[in-house]
Amino acid sequence: MYVAVKGGEKAIRNAHRLMATKRRGDRSVPGLTLDQIAGQLAIAVARVMGEGSLYDEGLAALAIKQARGDLIEAVFLLRAYRTTLPRFGYSEPVDTGAMLVERRISATFKDLPGGQLLGPTFDYTHRLLDFKLAADGELDTPLTAEVTETAMPRVTDLLSGEGLIEEDVPPAEDTAVGDLTREPLGFPAGRDLRLQNLARGDEGFLLALAYSTQRGYGRTHPFAGEIRYGAVEVEFFAEELGFAVPLGRIKVTECQMVNQFKGSAKVPPQFTRGYGLVFGQVERKAMSMAMVDRSLRCEELGEERTAPAQDEEFVLSHSDNVQATGFVEHLKLPHYVDFQAELDLVRRMRGEWFDRQAADQAAAHEAIGATTTDGSEKEAAE
Question: Cα dihedral angle (120, 125, 130, 132), rounded to 10 degrees?
Fold first, then answer.
């Protein structure tokens, strides 16, 4: 129960001014611009866009600046702003097969049609502080090559051609797709809602769940079939025109995990799929999402549900960092009435406990006294 705090408006205004001062920092140092944040903290911006469910690098950069770098607070700000935007409809499914690829790697096949493309990555860098960055000196110009039109089929398509992996059957065109941003989550949840939830879920939470599956909590040992990052075109079907029109391009990371599956009486031994798709270059999140997606398919594949990462309600109910933040941080708000009631209850319970202890001790003393008296009378009689 909350109570009004009288006379706190002045303190709140001063707290906001102090926050603004702390956010700005040393005024002798140039302030951060939104272009600097969007361009140089691109991975943080991508995470905020993904978990905030809004693809806009400028707004995500503004949220990060306003939140002083607190990414969960920035996600909260972006989601709050998102609710004020009008909705015109739903875009067409993006075709990641037609992606303008900047990075494409596979841990399952060395030689792939279209080749491996290392692209921008931390994977082969030394985890040592680069003090040259502190000097902000000139950078070496990256090498470039001619763009080729070589097709880059998905690794899972290659496996599917041999029947070695489960078929990826698209839903019927008239199948209703849930929208987690407009309807509350319910259980059981279809894979459409599960993937939406995971795409918006907290990266750290999903990473921990994915790690747990690798350590044996969920019987999942995956192979990174393919991870690709690049730009895809977003289209919107305009009814008045009768065809889809392009809205622009967004950058996404797609991960397809290949998982072991021993088969069943009706299904031959084959590999199964786990899928992840996120805004920007956030590979760790996409990989974690794909691993958790596969774990949540346990009942669909006839597997026993034994681990947290396989528990749909546990995963989906606790993956949202904005909701989790609300539950945790509301404890900072005044709970004076509740606490006073609890305090009074504990005091009365303690009083009753001490009264019982005193009564028990008195009864024990009386029993000892009676025993002693009976013994003395017997000795006198003898």
Answer: -50
